[in-house]
Amino acid sequence: MTDTTERVLRVLLEDPTARWYGYELMKATGVHSGTLYPMLARLAEQGLVVSEWETGEERPGGRPPRKFYRLTGIGVSAARVEVAEYAAARHTLAPARPGRTAALRPSHGGTR
To answer: For the whole prediction, is pTM greater than 0.70?
Structure first.
């Protein structure tokens, strides 16, 4: 997993039932569209994310429909495991900072 994937999964895990559209995810994670949309497509191919288009009733003022993304049930479980393992690996591999022990170093987390 990459830092970028970890940030996206963390945001999706904040409320596993929430639907997010791409621009919201970009703002929340700092991930650019050229990285985000292929990542979401890969996660969908793996069955971890499902996408759906916004219906006409959900669109005020006739703006173009948005495509929403959310974690699947399997995606929630897998994302929790992956994010936890990634955080543990980063903590283990992080270089010690002068004057601090590894046990006191906070783990990195990409949240909004």
So the answer is: yes
